[in-house]
Amino acid sequence: MEAFIQYTINGIITGLIYSLVAIGFNIIYASTKIVNFAQGEFVMLGAMLEFYLLSIHIPIVISFLISILSVGILGYLIFSIFIKNTKSKNELTLIILTIGIAMTIRGTSMITFGKNAHPVRQFLPFESITVLGLSFSSQYLIIIFTTLILATLLFLFFSKTLQGKIAIAISENRVACEVFGIDSSKIQALSFFVSGVIGAIGGSIMAPILFAKYDMGLSIGLKGFAASVVGGFGNNIGALLGGLLIGVAESLSSGYISSSYRDIVAFSIMILTLFLMPQGLLGSKDVERV
Question: Which of 120, 135, 151, 246 maximizes the CB count within 10 A of its CB?
Fold first, then answer.
């Protein structure tokens, strides 16, 4: 029983990270209808910048803020320079463009930070917490509270604020919104900024557990994408559920069978979901294929 609890809690923590990545996918998709495959690299950059700033003795809170703002600005620039100005607005073209941007960011990070995995110290002054007699990293508390707070704030933003409702309206009919004088490019640029911030937050808070490495964004990005598909693309509550489902399934399969099955389990859940419920657990049936 102790092993089951241990594996489940570890899976919940991993699942929350996947959920943050999935939410990042959703935010950009909500305003642009683009699947941004550079989202995993936002996570990696958050972790690597956190590592670097701490290594030069910048206080942890300042390091955290600099990391997430830097990646947020990068997201804004990616939209303003590449996405906005590309000649073809075809969705497939834009998706391929984000893949190219992801590979460029990954390569640049490898040259800048090296190929080694870098340890990052935990945010809290104590190393571990005890739950039901089992010991866990204190960083788990940071991950749980940060994810829940972010999910709540995003829910309120999209459901209660004018900017959030405009972002949803643009995703449904951008041309009609522009007829009414709405500058859709500003909302879309904002979505890339927010998505970058959320990705960097995920990378920063997970780095003390998984270490920071230049190629960590690929795996995490794909798992986050799978979580978004399972939960229902565009639905943040679904992203949370999808991430938790994949994270717990991964952890239990690793614990009771073998860690070699982690990826198989994660993507099998995604394939099964697409086969049985193409719209995901909580997604809209109106989501377009791209």
Answer: 246
127, 139 contact by CB (below 8 A): no
Count the neighbouring beta carbons within 10 Å of the beta carbon of residue 125. Answer: 6
Count Cβ atoms below 10 Å from residue 111 Cβ, excluding itself.
9
Local confidence pLDDT in tens for the 290 residues of the chain: 778 888 898 899 899 999 989 988 888 887 777 888 999 999 999 999 999 999 999 999 999 999 999 999 999 999 999 988 888 778 788 889 999 999 999 999 999 999 999 988 888 887 777 777 777 788 888 999 998 898 888 888 888 888 778 877 777 777 777 777 777 788 889 889 999 999 999 999 988 888 899 999 888 999 999 999 998 887 888 888 999 999 999 999 988 888 788 888 888 999 999 888 888 888 665 554 44
User: What would the two tokens of residue 236 be?
Assistant: 């943040």
Residue 90: DSSP 8-state: -
φ/ψ of 287, rounded to 5, equals -60, 130
Burial class (CB in 10 A: 0-12, 13-18, 19+), 115: exposed
Specify whether the CB–CB gap between 232 and 285 falls below 8 A. Answer: no
Terminal alpha carbon distance of the chain: 44
| Phi-psi category of residue 135: left, alpha or beta, with phi > 0 → left and psi -120 to 50 → alpha | beta
